[in-house]
Every structure is written in C-alpha cells, then in structure tokens.
Amino acid sequence: MTDPGDIDAAWLPSAAFRAVGSRRVLVRAGEGPQAGTVHSELAEACARFGGRVVPDGADADLVLAPADVDGLGDEGFTFERRGGTTTVTASGQRGLLHGLFHVVRLGEDAFTGERAREVHRPALATRMLDHWDNVAVHPVMGQVERGYAGGSLFWADGRARGDLDRVRAYGRLLAACGINAVAINNVNVHATEAHLLTDRIGEVAAIADVLRPYGIRTHLSVTFAAPVVLGGLPTADPLDEAVRTWWAEATRRVYEAIGDFGGYVVKADSEGQPGPFAYGRSHADGANLLAAALEPYGGTVHWRAFVYDHRQDWRDRSTDRARAAYDHFTPLDGRFAPNAVLQVKHGPMDFQVREPVSPLIGAMPRTRLAVEVQATQEYTGQQRHVCWLGPMWSEALRFRPDGSVSAGRLADGLVAVSNAGDDPFWTGHPLAQANLYTFGRLAWDPAADPRAVLDEWIALTHPGAPERLVDGLHAVLDGSWSTYEKYTAPLGVGFMVQPGHHYGPSVDGYEYSPWGTYHFADRDGVGVDRSAATGTGYAAQYAKPWSEVYESPETCPDELLLFFHHVSYGHVLHSGKTVIQHIYDTHFEGVEEAEEARRVWAGLADLVEPARHARVAERFEEQVRCAREWRDQVNSYFLRKSGVPDGRGRTVY
Ligand code: GCW
C-alpha cells in the first residue's frame, strides 16, 4: 500500500526509487541545472534506500555519464547492462535526466541480466502541456478554464505563487514521463494575463526557474492585440513597422528575463480572441510576426488552428464547422516561418469522445505541425468519470493520412491541455493521473502500446503492486474510454452535452445554437451529411483512401457513421445492428460497464491507500449516476423521435 505521505507524489512515490537507491551509483553528469537534478535525485534515493554515490573510478552498479553518440540529440540516451553494471550515457544533461527516469521505470529489471545497448530518443521534439490557467479568477471560467482539479498550480491570489514547491514537484513528475515544455497561462488571454508578457514577466521567470532543472522550457500565451493593449499603439497589424518593432522589443526583454524561454502560444481570430483578420491579413502574416520576434533567441510560436465561425446560424446548412481549420490553413502551406508551428486539434471539431483525425494533419507538408489533445476531460467526464484516453490518442497518432501503416511522423510536436491543478491528487480523479502520464510517454514514443504505458504508470504509482491490484486497475481503466463513448453521444455524432459547462446530457443542448455542433435528428434519422456528393463536402478534405472510405455509409466505419452521414434509424451497421438498436444497446451496456468498474474498484479497498480509494469511490457514485442520466435521456429522446421500441423491451422513458 502507498505511504499516505506519497499521495502528492503521483507516479513518483519514494518507493519507486528503491531499486536505484539501493545501488552503488557513479554519476559524471557535469554541471548545469539538469545535471544538478540527476545528482540530487540519486543522492536522495541512495540516502533513503542504503545505496551510495561513489567517486569516479570506484566499482558501481549504475553509471551515468556523458558520451558523444551520433544522433542522440540533446535529449536522447543510451542504456545497457554488461558484466553487472548498468550504464546510461547521453550527450546532454537532459538526456541523462531522461535516462535516469528510464532506470527508475525499469526498477529491479534495470539491474538484472544483460542488455545490449539500446538507443532511446524522443520521436517528437516538443512534448508540451498547455495550461488554461488564468491569473485572475475569471467570472465565468474560474481560475482554470475547463479545469477539474482545483485551482492553478502556478497562480493564486492574482499572482504567481510565492511558494513554488508544488510547481517543482510537478516539473519532476513531467520530466519523469518525458514532457519538456509547459505553457503556463490560458490561450484565452484576458486583461490581467496580457501583462505577463511585459511588466509581469518576472513572475513567469520565477516559474521558469523552477521548471528548468527538470528540462522543461516555459512558454507563454499572448494576445495578438498586445501592441495595442500593452503598447498603446493604434494597431496590431502584423505588417505595420511599429508593431513589428514593438514585438521585437517585448521579446528581447522576455529573453533578458528568461534565457531559455520556449516561445509564444497564440489563439487568434478564434472564439472572440483578436487576430490578423481584423487587418485583412492572413494567419501566416500573424504567426510570422511573432516568429520573427522569437527567431534571434531560438524561440517558437505555437499558432493554434482552432479558427471557425462560432456565431453561425443553425439554419444555415452550408457552413460546416468541421471544415473550418482545413479551409483556413491549407492555402497557407509553405508560408509559415520555420519557427512557427501550427497547433492543430486532433479532431476537426472539439475534443469529442469520438472524432475522425483532422484532415489538416498531413495536408500541410511544408508547415511544422503540432497535434493538440485534451487531457483535461472537458467532454469526457470532467474527471468525475474515469476515462483513460491512452487508446484514443494512440489511435489518432497511428493514423496515416495516406492510409499507409508506415511509422512516418505525423507532426513535430504533441501538446495536451493539462488536467492538473492544486488538488492533492493533482488531477481531481486520482485515476486521471494516468492520462497525464500516458500523454507524456506517447509524446516521447507515439508508437508505444498504450497498455504497456499503463503498466508503467501502475508499477510506478503502486510499487510492488500485487497482481490483483494490477488486474483491477486494468479492468477499471483499459475499457473506460469505450464505456464513456457508449453511454454518451452515439456513433461519432458528438456534443449532446449541457451548454456552457459541458457536463452531463442535453441532447438538443446545442441543436439551435450558433456553435456549429448539430446532430440533425428528426423522426426518420440522425447524423450530419459531410459527404462530397450530397453533404458539406468535408469528407473530400481527406486524401485517398480516407476520402473514399468516409464518403459512403457503406464503407464509413460504424463508430464515425453519424459524424459523416445522416442515416435512417433502420440503417444497418457493419455490426449487423440497426442504428436505433445500437443506440439502445450501447447505452444500456455503457451503464452496466460503469457499474461493473465501480464494483471492481470497491474490491480493491484493501490494496489502495484509503484516501485515494475513497476519492475514486466517491467519483464512481457520480459517474454511475450521470451515466444513467445519459442513458435515459439519450434513449428516451430517440424512442420519442423515432417511435421504434427497444428490441429487447427494456425500460425507456
Ligand atoms: O474546447 C473549447 C473550450 C474552450 C477553449 C477552446 C479552445 C480555451 O470549450 O474553453 O478555450 O476550446 O481550445 O480554445
């Protein structure tokens, strides 16, 4: 059982260091912030578990040392075990830090048998978390927009926290799963937060100082209107000389305060945020303005592609929000600066439980791209429901726009909206920690098997876990995404959530709204026709084979059918069921699966630290209640629309 003092430690409880800490360890990491971390981690682990940090030349069980290995880069490392010695080498301190955590993950396995030299390096250069944290509590969105884990880790009482110990602990957790960049404020940049860029950069620097020893660079969300709202200029036109000078000067000062500052994140012309459209300029003009300011210092601008009309008329059937990012950005391919990265949500809509992979991914070969996923569970149960997103992300990362199975790279970076806050369990729902951990590991290696990553998380979080606990956690987590999908919006149609906060069911909640998120259910059928032949043409944004696969209901995968097509309730799926019977069956099953997961969790009470067990148990009560609400509202809605009864005669209201 976990030491109660370790609740805060998530996947790095002290016992996770037992294997390393009971060895003779030789470190030649050199000087520098991450080298310092390697030294102190090992010294602490050895002090706790009876090992020893030995001087150069002495016999050692574990050696960490610099080496010049071709192609390792700044973050890669080698690992091998020969003649009773485990050796980690790296060209940079960051690599040694990653190597150390690799050894921690392996535990005793790192010190048994022989292992030929393995080379480890991250597949994606940027592995980033975006925090939607506000400095000043926002009247509607609170301190953390879409945050379900308490307040912000970084900000409290209107300023950067004075005590950054928890930020330090956070940085350590992130380093241990491979994350190397954090944006510390909301992409919706409000009045107070705009000032972080200029007169409040000192607060950002204090946070950056704490994250640096873990190899994490700090990024800032900035408002495109900064030259106006902060600089007093009459315009923020990206082609205006005074505007360019303003950004260059502001950025120079940022780097004076934070030498390794990562760069800017920008949400422009999106949901009311200012952007280049106001000046008749393109998003390439906008992004390149900031890229030019950052370029002398090696910084990057992450420019978000979440640009769509959020004030559309629901009566207008020709506008399709799913098309928007592709339509806006593909004409700009090749026009973005080398240090501008287009940050694209993994799906074309908005982090629904099921969406196709965005057609923008793969459609801009001359543009650097980062894929954005949402660890914070805005649409997947808000950390009251267990919903492990590893399989969903893995599916998206394995998707190949040309239908191949090659391991070719989808993007330069992977970004997640963080699900962490100042909650003692970090993520509100203790099991949601698995999402954060899995994200980091998949960003390091998108080809990794998510279940193996989950095994790592379980082993680190519960060192020495008996098989019953390991099996129980798998039983609760493995299928939790599929369970959530079953009791919520069916067959990829999306939304059906309560407007505004997005928790719980409201089938027609967004049906007559300006947000572009409709399901078009009537008495005959449901779904959005996005075919090229008769619909919005969205399906044609894909390259072959996907454009053809999605074009026809005959070939479209069941799980996406209502995303791409409007079909009758009697339409027969590949599964052999009609759409209406599928809706009934999955909603009953989803609730049963949630109840079963709750039962499995209850049976683990003797193996899990009591406070953690109680927190999860309490969340399961809410999940089951809410799942039943989803089931009954969705089933009743479709019974009333269609008049088709459940083939199995179960209760529908
Ligand atoms: O998912 C939506 C959220 C908004 C968010 C927006 C975005 C930060 O509902 O709260 O704003 O996406 O990604 O910009």
From TrEMBL:
One of its GO terms (biological process) is xylan catabolic process. Its EC number is 3.2.1.139. GO terms for cellular component: extracellular region. Residues 427-650 form the Glycosyl hydrolase family 67 C-terminal domain. Keywords: Glycosidase, Hydrolase. It is an enzyme of class 3 (hydrolase). Residues 117-400 form the Glycosyl hydrolase family 67 catalytic domain. InterPro entries: A-glucoronidase_C_sf (IPR037054), GH (IPR017853), Glyco_hydro_67_C (IPR011099), Glyco_hydro_67_cat (IPR011100), Hex-like_dom2 (IPR029018). It holds the Pfam family Glyco_hydro_67C. GO terms for molecular function: alpha-glucuronidase activity; xylan alpha-1,2-glucuronosidase activity. It comes from the Bacteria. This is Alpha-glucuronidase. It comes from Streptomyces calvus.
